[in-house]
Amino acid sequence: MFSLAADLIHVFSSVPRHLNFIDHTSDIGWKESQRVQPVIVDAGIYLAGRNQFFQSTEKRATPDGFKFFTGSPWVILNRRFIEYCIFGWENLPRTLLMYFTNVMLPLEGYFHSVACNSDFRNFTVNNDLRYVAWDDPPQMEPRFLNITHYEEIVESGVPFARKFREKEYLLDKIDEKILQRWRHRPVPGAWCTGRKRWFSDPCSQWSNVNIVRPGPQAEKFRRYMDRILEESKSSNSSCAQ
């Protein structure tokens, strides 16, 4: 199995399965007037071949039937929470779905608001497991990562990072040093049984593809995971903020 996938499976196998990882906050600030109150109509929902959206000239009041949360659009959700969002046995997920249909960038608020306005608030870790570099003060978008961030990314133990420019050298170094991936070849895993030579790919021969053998970064990821889970348990629910 690929090294990164093996590391993820290895660490998550000991993480409680009822947890969701959703970076979120109720301190929406400027987003209230620019994201929450404007009414957005996405033409792509009902017109084939169109990806434009339109903004109404009028705004709507900030909802008082639920608390609005926002955060990272990259989330890790457990099965029970997904089933709740689909079936919505007390109608909250569908109510919020209808509301977020007309919100700019709904992926930055829908799951966050459903989780924090429901019983899942106590099973949500306020983290998206991503390394991101922000300006000071933060701008609309994070900084592009480059080779100067390499050591910090490696030592952090965080499994994901963003954002990168196309053909960024940092990605090549991650492939070479962390994933041990040769150019134009797959990431080698425990299933690769061929000999590693400059003219041959060790993964051209394989055995059991279900073998999971964590790589050297797995221990750093494990320490990072232990730390954020301990912080989550020792602090008050971030959904109450």
UniProtKB/TrEMBL annotation:
Highest taxon of the lineage: Eukaryota
Keywords linked to the UniProt accession: Glycoprotein, Glycosyltransferase, Membrane, Transferase
Name under which the protein is recorded: Uncharacterized protein
Compartments it resides in: Membrane
GO terms of molecular function: glucuronosyltransferase activity
Topology in membrane: Single-pass type II membrane protein
Main location: membrane
Alphabetized InterPro entries for the sequence: GLCAT14A/B/C, Glyco_trans_14
This protein's record includes keyword Glycosyltransferase: yes
Keyword set includes Transmembrane: no
Signal sequence coordinates: none
GO cellular component, one term: membrane
